[in-house]
Design goal:
The chain is of the alpha/beta class and 693 residues long. Helix content is 46%, strand content 13%. The protein contains 25 helices and 19 strands. The strands form 7 sheets. Strands 12-15-18-11-19 form a 5-stranded parallel beta sheet, with helices on both faces. Strands 1-2-3 form a 3-stranded antiparallel beta sheet. It has a 3-stranded parallel beta sheet with strand order 5-6-9, with helices on one face. Helix 8 (238-248) packs parallel to helix 10, helix 13 crosses helix 15 and helix 23 (591-607) crosses helix 24 (622-642).
Length: 693
């Protein structure tokens, strides 16, 4: 496992290790319990394969408790296998038991407990095709009838994800459809009349998974509940899963490391602040283990402790708020005492990043560099990522710069295959209806019309080039539209449409969401996406001002830029602090918004299209130009920071602004503004036709 294997070889070996570890544990358990009879339940509860004489020939039969199932012989390629825990065994017993009783099965529980994956994995173990379909409220009984008709004739299994999102009216009809199929199977019929069509009937299985109590979910009607055997999947065995996955990734001391890792997540959930975008579930654990495996293979000589800490740090730090980061490092220090983690070396990536930021006319801020690197790391371990942060925190710039870095490194001939050309398409999911986003059936003509997201993804799937294709959803995430993408964002990577079509997406594609917060996203969504939190304090407003001064026309003397930078550095933050403490804003504004506002007001008066300032007249009088800049900046300052306050706060803000300007000149001297004593600064404007204003 530690050697340099191809992707296919690694998949095969990891799957073999995972199943062999489980087989070893079972044999040990049977030995310890002294099982010596074939009818002992400890033996019967195992998934057992027999080669027996069946109907004049020989065939492979699978026995599990009372159920007997024919082996499916369906070729699925080299697929990964699940870590089999006692919870998985319990789920499998219910699934096979319900199959034997000609019923469906209904695993239920919170997000990230392995409901869908356990169902898929059992089908893999039996070599039966399992069709995973993400249900939505757009689904009607005709579409479900079409799906059941296909299952009944092919003998496949289906796993209907988020089944309780379907409308209650449709669920009642589905109950009737399932009853017809079950009665046909119980009577041993080879063909039945289903929805007015005569079809062949083969043994099949319908599995539904549900998150009870989440937003947008309905209670199943009683006549539907009786068609399924329920199984509750609440708390997965994190330590065992982490141990076997680490073992399969080539770690020697997997037992100790897995326990420490689980303890870290427990402590994080207890001690760090509670945020809607924090998730410490099974998917978060899995992404850390995948990253740890990659780091282990890239750095075989580094100690395992260090590899795991680095993976934990790189996959968790992006989502933490600034206040939680010191606590997280303190927890790591307690669990791994005396281990010092060096920073990763990003060599060519770092150089390309600084170049691209400079080319874009922006400033190289270390805090922003960190976020671009984190975005890159998250995209390497997750199919979907989310940039979370307030307006002006640099979310759009972050992914645009990352796309340029990857494209430029690929064009420069980098040997790293992760650097490929990037193309992205942006859409706002909240400005259109669900039908326009995912597609809908025209009720009059019964024609299917593709939606915006499905069209973009279909086009990306048909593109055979290695170009990385990102779909950027720039709009708020809520339970209405994002839940339809649950199978897109997990290991299935399949977009399920309301006409029953399933679009299998490629690894070259990525989903990116750009949002202010995840307050109304369900836990099912949060667990599926990697989060990068753009901390506003990392960037601040000063880099914007510096970049803005670099865009001035050549006619503006350098002295104006120097004076402006000095005024912003000396005064602007004081104004922001006063306004936040003493004044009230009817419409809340972020710091960078106020800085942008003051810059635009200043620019429009000094050198905008209607500006009355003639720079030629000031060539011999630099002092007067400086006076004019000070007065114009003060006017912009008052109307940006002060302008966003409520009217009754204008007077106290005016007093503060005048007082501040008295000590903001060179070496604490006063800046002469010539504001008349009557009224407030809000009552006057700067007359640019007079020299010096």
């Amino acid at each position: 496992i530690r050697s340099d294997l191809t992707s296919l070889q690694r998949k095969c070996v990891v799957a073999l290790v995972t199943t062999d570890v489980h087989a070893r544990d079972i044999v040990e358990d049977l030995k310890n319990k002294g099982v010596n009879r074939v009818d002992d339940f400890n033996w019967m509860q195992q998934l057992r394969y027999y080669w027996e004489a069946v109907g004049g020939g020989e065939d492979c039969l699978i026995r599990h408790s009372d159920a007997v199932i024919n082996y499916g012989y369906e070729y699925m390629g080299a697929t990964s296998r699940l870590v089999i825990t006692p919870l998985t065994d319990r789920c499998w017993l219910t699934l096979t038991g319900s199959y034997g009783l000609k019923l469906g099965a209904a695993p239920a529980g919170p997000a990230g407990t392995g409901k869908t994956e356990s169902s898929k994995d059992l089908a893999k173990a039996m070599a039966i095709q399992c069709v995973v379909f993400n249900c939505s409220d757009q689904i009607d009984y005709k579409m479900m009838g079409k799906l059941f008709r296909g299952l009944a004739q092919s003998g496949s299994w289906t796993c209907l994800d988020e089944f309780n999102r379907i409308d209650i009216e449709v669920l009642s009809v589905i109950a009737q459809q399932l009853l017809v199929l079950r009665e046909g199977r119980l009577a041993g019929k080879n063909s039945i009349n289903f929805m007015g069509v005569g079809i062949k009937l083969v043994d099949h299985h319908v599995i539904i998974t549900m998150n009870p109590g989440y937003a947008g979910r309905t209670e199943l009607p009683d006549n539907l509940q009786v068609c399924f055997r329920p199984v509750s999947m609440m708390v997965p065995n994190y330590a065992l899963i982490a141990e076997i996955m680490l073992f399969a990734e080539g770690f020697g001391d997997a037992k100790t490391l897995s326990r420490k890792m689980c303890k870290l997540y427990i402590l994080c959930s207890e001690q760090l602040s509670q945020q809607p975008h924090y998730d410490y579930g099974l998917r978060a654990v899995k992404s850390v283990l995948v990253m740890a495996g990659g780091l282990k293979r890239a750095n075989p000589d580094i100690s395992e402790d260090l590899v795991l800490i680095r993976a934990l740090r790189d996959s968790n730090l992006p989502k933490f708020l600034a206040d939680d980061i010191p606590l997280f490092f303190a927890i790591i220090k307690d669990l791994f005492p005396g281990v010092v983690v060096p920073d990763n070396d990003y060599g060519e990536f770092q150089v390309a990043m600084e170049d691209e930021i400079t080319k874009a006319g922006l400033q190289n801020v270390p805090g922003f560099h960190k976020k671009v690197i984190q975005m890159f790391d998250i995209f390497n371990i997750r199919f979907g990522a989310t940039l979370v942060g307030p307006t002006g925190a640099g979310k759009s710039t972050c992914y645009r710069i990352l796309s340029r870095i990857m494209t430029s490194l690929h064009k420069a001939g980098s040997k790293n295959e992760q650097y490929q050309e990037v193309a992205f398409e942006i859409l706002n999911p909240k400005c259109i209806t669900m039908g326009e986003l995912y597609g809908e059936v025209n009720m009059v003509t019964q024609e299917w019309r593709d939606g915006l997201a499905s069209t973009i993804m279909r086009r990306a799937v048909n593109d055979e080039t290695p170009v990385r294709k990102w779909t950027v959803f720039d709009g708020p995430i809520d339970a209405l539209w994002i839940e339809n993408m649950n199978t897109v964002l997990d290991d299935n990577m399949t977009l399920c449409l309301a006409n029953g079509e399933r679009i299998k997406l490629k690894v070259e594609m990525k989903m990116l969401f750009e949002v202010m917060d995840l307050a109304v996203a369900s836990p099912a969504t949060v667990s599926r996406i990697g989060v990068v939190f753009m901390t506003p304090s990392d960037l601040g407003w000063m880099p914007y001002v510096t970049s803005w001064t670099q865009t001035f026309p050549e006619s503006v003397p350098d002295a104006v830029k120097t004076k402006l930078i000095a005024l912003y550095e000396n005064c602007f933050q004081k104004g922001l602090t006063f306004q936040r403490k003493k004044c009230k804003e009817p419409v809340g504004c972020v710091d960078i918004q106020l800085a942008t506002s003051s810059a635009m007001i200043f620019q429009s008066i000094l050198f905008g299209p209607e500006s009355k300032v003639q720079f030629e007249t000031y060539t011999e009088k630099p002092d007067l130009l400086e006076r004019l800049v000070e007065k114009l900046w003060y006017f912009a300052f008052v109307w940006s920071i002060g302008g966003s306050c409520q009217a009754q706060d204008h007077e106290q803000f005016d007093d503060f602004a005048k007082e501040m300007m008295e000590t903001s000149g060179d070496e604490g001297s006063s800046i002469p503004l010539d504001v008349p004593g009557m009224g407030t600064s809000f009552d006057y404007f700067v007359d640019c036709t007079v020299e010096g204003g």
